[in-house]
Amino acid sequence: MTLKLGIFYFLAAFTVWASAVVVLGKNIVRSAVALIFGFCGMAALYVLLDAEFLAAVQVLIYVGGITILLLFAIMLTSRIGSTTARVVNDQVILSAIAAIGLLVGLIYASTSGIPAMSGPPRLPETAPFLGRALLTTYALPFEAVSVLLLAAMVGAIVLARKD
Amino acid sequence: MEKPIPIGTTVVMERTGETMEEMYVNMGPQHPSTHGVLRLMLKLDGEYIIDCIPYIGYLHRCHEKIGENRNYTQIIPYTDRLDYLASMSMNFGYVLAVERLMGQKIPERAEYMRVILAELQRIASHLIWLGTFGLDLGNFTIFMYCFREREMVLDLFESVTGQRLNYSFYRIGGMPMDFPDTFLTDCQAFLAWFKPRLPEYDAIMTDNILFQKRVQGVGISPPQVAVEYGLSGPMLRACGIKWDLRRNEPYSIYDRFEFDIPVFDTCDVWARYMVRRREMEESVKIVEQALAQLPPGEVMAKMPKTIKPPAGQIYSRAESPRGEIGFYIVSDGSPKPYRYKVRSPAYVNLSALPEMLKGCLVADCVAVLGSVDIVLGEVDR
Amino acid sequence: MMIFATLVERFYAALAAWGIPWIVPTLVVMVIVVSVVLAYISVAAMFMIWWERKISAHIQVRYGPMRVGGWHGWAQSIADGIKLLLKEDLIPTGADKVVFVLAPMVVFGATVAAYVTIPWAPGLIVRDLNIGILYMVSISSLVVVGIIMAGWSSNNKYATLGALRSAAQAVSYEVPLVLSLLGPVMIAGTMSMGKLVEAQSGRWFGVLPGWFVFPQIVAFLTYFTCALAECNRLPFDIPEAESELVAGFHVEYSGMRFAMFFLAEYANMFVVSAIATTLFLGGWHGPWIPLPGLPREVAHGLFGLVWFQVKCYFLIFVMMWLRWTLARLRVDQLMGFAWKVLLPISFANLIVTGLVLILGKHALLYVGGIAILLLVAILLAARPAARTVRVGERT
Fold it and tell me: What are the chain A neighbours of C135 within 8 Å (beta carbons)?
């Protein structure tokens, strides 16, 4: 068990480091690249939690899809090489409050303990259970999300069309 | 050495004077698809080309000025270097101009020799064009096929002239020597081998749906634009205008042969491809007829030791594989031309490139440039 | 079947008997497995490079490499590898050094990681993850990240354009690719690579081998097309089109870093072929006979290994064949093809597969047959059309 814990701390530190680079990095492309590493770290943490399906989907969707689109958008806009993004903007106090609140909440949760955090049931395959749950118990939220995505897509097309 | 322009820099366009923030791509002069040392400045909006400026002159060698300091015969080797892929046609155009200026008739057999060599040269030139055009579109294999056949033409030329690229074989007043004995059979063997190869090219290029998708509707030059820019050769015939000097203004003995002038009116890269592709067939026809009719006799007319055309001027033109190769010569009666000017087809055709490229994708740039079939030796002179 | 698993277990047991903590044999096994996989990748990639040169040469009436090593220049790749190793390692002045150095590692690492779930032979698989196929697809999508990193960090416009094209291409083709893989997954009801192969052990009507390519021919063709795009092979080699972008994203790379891109490209070809073999061509299934003097399982394993390789290399051969025959598509045509043709086809295939699965297993082959007939009809209809197209002739 100690080995697993060690791996967890290593992965957690890696993910936190990558996320810190995303937020604090001055070069926007480097931030995007760091984001990829952050997502990969998250995926590895999922694997540690026996959620391989989630991990693979994380890599496929977030790394293979979203980050690439992100990089694509960054590269299409001009002045990529020279610009340095501003790290801090006017909302620094608001976000600091939110971040500290989240930290407090997390510390409280990890010290007092939440029932759900006791070891997960070991399933041989998570994918069938996920699929069944999505199409039976959680069918309505699932459909709602698809409608939301559809709306987003229509919005994107409307924005992209120039006439 | 110019510094590369970083992406997103504000650049002032030399020709139009406007400033812009679009991406600029400098293509060439060391780019694999510019067919020599041509430099294109592409103004891009994403992947679309908004404008293009060809920068030429990297191969400029004062061809015309050198011509004014050489006597008429000495100019012939320089004309080789104009369109080094079609030296025979360049020689042909030049000697034709001088002979017309002198009013010189040349022996029958020499006329036939000239036509045979020029048409073989047209095949070789179109082959190298087809190969490199395939290369531009990512098809490597057609390149090798075309070079295989071109080698055979070059072997024929070598047997006649001793040279494989710069022949300098035409003389004012005829040809320096006759065909070697083996030429007739060799040439017929080549034609017999070459004719079945054309369907092979069709299989790999013409009938390939991917190829058609790439070239159809791309790089449009409307007939009016083509005429206004003075395009000639296959570029003009691809705009639906039936203009071929071999037919419209027959020189040498071209009026004796049966051949078609392929014309396509879609005005795109596809039309240019098809015109050149069909022209190879027509050239084969001409060579076959000329070989059959080849008369015996002398190949060189009686000429004076030093050629001194009478004072006067002439503009004489001929149909090279790339279009109208024109020579303008002003003679003052001395052994050297007073003024010697070349109207080269590739130079004029290239000038219409920006028109054709507007609105194309970067990927089409290569296809369109390839379809113009430029030879930088002739563009820059 | 479980020869290798048994071996590993014995190894563990032996070391445990000597009182050595379990971490040691685990690490030893890991190192051995990784070395074997890496060695295989290098040798296979070198072989494929030489093979491609020979194939292209013979398609183009040439000989290809003939000198190095004697017989048909078999050592050419080795010589090239040594040359690339000894070359000066250049990093352009304006480049983002960290990203520039990292990029080939990401590409190579992603490719190598995909080898984990390749089912080489019965029981011979590094790790039969229960989400095997999903893992492979998601890991190979990381290759594009490396390509974008390479293109951007080079500070070269051609490289940036290549990376842009690569990103657009990857995002477009990933979708029909994954959708086409869902067909076999739905039939087999599993995503584990080993179980997918086992699901193809039967026979269709007692005649045809039980490969998923027969009912899923549409999915197979869709997948193969997308796989070509994923590997940046012609006619989809737009990110590195040499006539347009010089070499695309790796134009500034030289020496060993370039070699890593090159190796990864060929290794990736093998990965996509292995996926196709596993999901559509029955993996290691094939006729086999018990070899004298060997246990049945070992003989079966050996034959499986050979069959798997034969099928993979056949697909790779087809990829090379296409590369040296076809012209390159244009960017917008490529996107249009992915979104307007491949995506609807793969969705339709998915719906039909689902319907058939609910309605009954025997309908599978009818659907496959209809699909083949349709395909043949389309091909027959397209062929004469292509021959007669002489747009705009006016002699």
Answer: 52, 56
Q: What is the DSSP string of B16-38?
A: T--EE-SEEEEE-SS-TTSSSS-
This prediction has a pTM of 0.78
Contact C276, C283 (CB under 8 A): no
Residue with tokens 């307007």: C340
The 10 Å Cβ neighbour count of residue B51 is 18
Residue B373 backbone class (left: φ over 0; alpha: ψ -120 to 50; beta: rest): left
Judge whether residue C390 has pLDDT over 60: no
Closest residue by Cα to residue B318 from B129, B113, B86, B126: B86
Q: Is B47 on the interface with A (CB under 8 A)?
A: no
For B116, C278, C303, C308, the CA distances from C311, given in Å and listed in that order, are 53, 9, 12, 5
Residue of C nearest to B199 (CA): C387
Mapping DSSP to helix (H, G, I), strand (E, B) and coil, where does residue B55 land? strand
| Cα–Cα distance list, C356 to A128, A131, B197 (Å) | 20, 20, 49
Q: How far is CA C62 from CA B141, B204, B364, C69, in A?
A: 10, 17, 30, 18
| Interatomic CA distance for residues A17 and B107, integer angstroms | 88
> Residue C229 pLDDT > 80, yes or no?
yes
Nearest Cβ partner of B46 from A76, A79, A82? A76
Percent of chain B having pLDDT more than 70?
92
Give pLDDT tens digits for B62-85. Answer: 888 888 888 888 888 888 888 888
- Name the 3-class secondary structure at C322: helix
**Interchain pair B6, A82: CB under 8 A:** yes
Q: Burial level of C103, CB count in 10 A (0-12/13-18/19+)?
A: buried
Residues B29 and B58 sit within 8 Å (Cβ to Cβ): yes
Its sign, for the CA torsion B203, B208, B211, B217, is: positive
d(CA B133, CA B33): 9
Instruction: Report the amino acid identity of residue B354.
Output: P
C-alpha–C-alpha distance, residues C144 and C268, integer Å: 12
Distance CA B187, CA C69 (A): 40
Q: Do A78 and B7 touch (CB under 8 A)?
A: yes
ipTM: 0.72
Residue C169 CA to residue A88 CA, distance in Å, equals 35
pLDDT of A80 > 70? The answer is: no
- Chain B and chain C share a number of CB contacts under 8 A equal to 118
The residues spanned by each domain of chain C are: 90-329, 331-382
